[in-house]
Amino acid sequence: MTALFALATSLLWGLADFGGGLLTRRVPALTVVVVSQSIAVVVLGALVAATGAWSEAGPQLWFAVAAGLVGPVAMLAFYKALALGPMGVVSPLGSLGVAVPVGVGLVLGERPGLLQFVGILVAVAGVVLAGGPQFKGAPVQRQALLLTLLAAFGFGAVMALIAEASTTLTGLFLALFVQRVTNVAAGGTALYISVKRGAPALPSDGFPYRSLPAFAFVGLADVAANGTYALAAQQGPVTVAAVLASLYPVVTALAARAMLGERLRAVQTAGAGLALVGTVLLATG
User: Are 272 and 255 in contact (CB under 8 A)?
Assistant: First the structure.
């Protein structure tokens, strides 16, 4: 079940990042974060009310608050980095955040077996290559690199925090709701300050209402990914769950191939193959 939930996380995060990257090319990144997460708040609020999850409120929700404060910073940094490009560098580097939850797992005493350790190394190498790192061509702007590393650390921190925020399914609904409310509050404050300083909140032609389904998909896929990751971390070793959940650059690359007609380079194909081998090693080890 750990492998199943973690791989579902990769699928959801990969598609959410693809959608978020596309939206950010037309709409300011802060607006994408606030609108998409606001939609997620409405849906999660309904789930919390329907399941009576409020009864499971406790001190562990502070982990969800912390994840909610870190999340918007990471998403904003990542979307801005994707907009600056090149995506072939930004996408794989963003997955390096896996080091945070893996490190937490090791500190807490988890010790993967030899086969799993090899699987971790193979899978991480595959993820980096699947993003299609551009060893030649357009130089990477320093700002894009710094934003990507900030996003990677933030994503890893959110993974570690949300895994500690609940122990039951209904508690997970509440934790995700608290996280998203905090996301919207933090992101909304940042958007207000940004507008006060003269930055636009919307494109010149106004809010793209036709893109509302895309906003909804990005927000709901992202929150669902956090949920499946939390379940994966509860079911098995965090070191395994975190690595499998970080295969999302493979999904992003495949989505770009299917929806934008981007051709996979040889290095990306090799990376996808390595990621698959690493997944099998982790799942069977």
Answer: no
State pTM to two decimals.
Answer: 0.76
Side-chain half-sphere exposure of 173, counting CA atoms within 13 A? 17
Average pLDDT for the chain: 80
Termini Cα distance of the chain:
14
Q: Span 124-132, mean pLDDT? A: 67
Residues 6+ apart with CB under 8 A from 87: 21, 131, 256
Residues ≥6 apart with Cβ < 8 Å to 235? 1, 2, 5, 241
* Cβ count within 10 A of residue 169: 14
Host H or E run for residue 197: none
Within 10 angstroms of residue 220's Cβ, the number of other Cβ atoms is 18
Distance CA 92, CA 219 (A): 21
Q: Which of 116, 125, 113, 121 is nearest to 280 (CA)?
A: 116
Tokens of 16: 């959410």
3-state class of 246 per DSSP? coil
- How far is the C-alpha of 118 from the C-alpha of 112, rounded, in Å? 9
Read off the pLDDT of each residue in 64-81 and give the average, rounded to a whole number.
Answer: 84
The better pLDDT of the pair 127, 140 is held by 127
3-state secondary structure of 42: helix
d(CA 226, CA 13): 9
